[in-house]
Design a protein that fits this description.
Helix content is 26%, strand content 23%. With 271 residues, the protein is an alpha+beta fold. A seven-stranded mixed β-sheet has the order 1-2-10-7-12-6-5. It has a three-stranded antiparallel β-sheet with strand order 9-8-11, with no helix packed on it. It has a two-stranded antiparallel ribbon with strand order 3-4. It contains eight helices and twelve strands.
């Protein structure tokens, strides 16, 4: 039984290397399907109702929500790299490796948004932060108000910024949502899985390469989320992402804030 386990582990490692080499030599983000295997909430008229979003979230399944944030100024002003740089390019952000090493990941480089998006030496890193209030408070005026279902899942604010063919390695945490403001991002989501699943240690875009589905955990589904859409991921669901454009920007929230008194929201916002 021990030998069988070792052989299985070796086989998994070898296949991971093979898929990684395939991705490194021939992977292109243009090959990633733009389809979505998750429920997509259709809109009634131009805006999806908060009641329908609440109902979907309460089912505790991953879901994509359309036309829910198009009232935000950011949804129009930040759709281009030049527009975002001209307004927010001086904000300093922490960059890190794509594969998540721990639940608390420390940024490896600190640069401005302009430097990250315009300098090729940083393009293999990502900006992916939880609870950075300085970034949140600098960006928040352009993506308010938060629709009530999203405001209830805002224990900490999140910010994500990436270049083409980068992404966030497989991980899990409390329930969360991300509003895609610019670019397209491929998501892989699945119900809670073993911490030691082999997909946890590969470069995230490898999971979307040809053959990469053999590394997916049981029950995994893929979805390409486009600008103007919001994805909701339930508590402790496994997820990994791959950025499909050279400017991919998202904001969001993680963890329940349903029981918060109103003043805590104001403290978080710096009001």
């Amino acid at each position: 039984q021990r030998h069988f386990w070792l052989l299985a582990m070796v086989g998994s490692v070898l296949f991971t290397i093979l898929v990684a080499l395939t991705w490194a030599t021939g992977f292109s983000t243009t090959e990633v399907a733009s389809s979505c295997q998750l429920q997509r909430l259709p809109s009634k008229g131009s805006v999806v109702s908060a009641k329908k979003v609440d109902k979907a979230i309460n089912k505790r399944r991953a879901v994509v929500i359309t036309n829910f944030t198009n009232m935000w100024r950011a949804s129009k002003a930040w759709v281009t790299k030049s527009g975002f740089i001209s307004e927010k390019g001086d904000i300093r952000i922490a960059l890190r490796q794509q594969v998540v090493q721990s639940s608390i990941d420390v940024g490896e480089h600190f640069v401005t948004i302009k430097e990250y998006l315009e300098d090729t030496k940083h393009q293999g890193l990502i900006a992916f932060t939880f609870d950075d209030l300085s970034i949140y408070r600098a960006l928040r005026p352009d993506y308010t108000p938060l629709p009530e279902p999203l405001r209830r899942i805002h224990g900490v604010p999140t910010f994500t910024l990436g270049r083409n063919a980068t992404g966030s390695g497989a991980h899990h945490h409390e329930e969360a949502w991300v509003a895609q403001l610019a670019g397209k991002k491929a998501w892989l989501v699945a119900p809670p899985v073993d911490e030691n699943h082999p997909s946890n240690s590969v470069e995230p875009c490898t999971l979307f390469a040809k053959g990469g589905e053999r590394l997916w955990p049981q029950g995994a589904r893929r979805c390409t989320v486009e600008a103007g859409e919001v994805i909701y991921v339930p508590d402790h669901w496994y997820h990994a992402t791959c950025n499909l454009d050279d400017f991919t920007l998202g904001v969001g929230g993680k963890g329940s804030s349903r029981a918060w008194p109103e003043y805590l929201h104001h403290i978080q916002a710096g009001d």
